[in-house]
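Appendix B. Chain record.
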Amino acid sequence: MDSSVEPTRVSILGNEDIVVDYDLGGSYIINDLLTSVPSSSYVLITDTNLYDKYVPSFENVFFAITTERKVQSRLLKYQVPPGETSKSRATKTDIEDWLLSEERDPPCDTKSVIIALGGGVIGDMIGFVAATFKRGIRFVQVPTSLLAMVDSSIGGKTAIDTPAGKNLIGAFWQPSKIYIDLNFLNTLPKREFINGMAEVIKTAAIWNEEEFEYLEENASRVMAAIRNAPDTSGQRLSDVRSIIKKLVLGSVRVKAHVVSADEREGGLRNLLNFGHSIGHAFEGILTPQILHD
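Structure tokens predicted for this chain:
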């Protein structure tokens, strides 16, 4: 993005740790990371569907910026299979063993920072890895799906699934930063986009009448844009850029406000679970015919 224009920041738990805008790209994120979450070792973890699309360019920009700034930091990369089945004890163990391996030369330590690049599965699982590795290390969320942007990346709920059910083993572990680059939505499949919009609608319905009315007024324009084929040029959402940003920010601010007031889900935060219990039941029975929310 234009270096003279600051992206929108949202406060959570007393710090402006959520960054929302278009064109954050690798350069903004990397520069901000090196300044606000400094480390000698960054570990970028994503799934195999996203790896080739985003990791090589991220790595090139990382190398260029660290060289220019004369920062002695390395970028390690790891990929896991996509989908809910990867959100497991087995995958978590594989990642931890890889982080601890002498092949990392040196292995990752308490000062390392993990970057979770992906949707809710990646964010939940990698957040739990960060919560338990070396008794807890810093991690950063870079959500790539709309649902992850407005829901799972915010609030520090991390977990893996077990045969007994979803998200039954986990921890509250807050990310050091959440970078919400709305450009990812240009490549999001229509089905996944609508899946995330369900969360936006739900949040507006339970919290903000004006936001809900704004949704109603702009629903046809948003749906028309979503029906366009995913692309990397940014044209898909060009007619609704400001609308999408306003909708995402509205949901993000509600989630951040609720988490700040009730981080550990002792009362108010339960409001955000509206519809989740029965939704997870349907999801468990009908996946993959239906998606979360």
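Further analysis of this model is presented in Appendix C.
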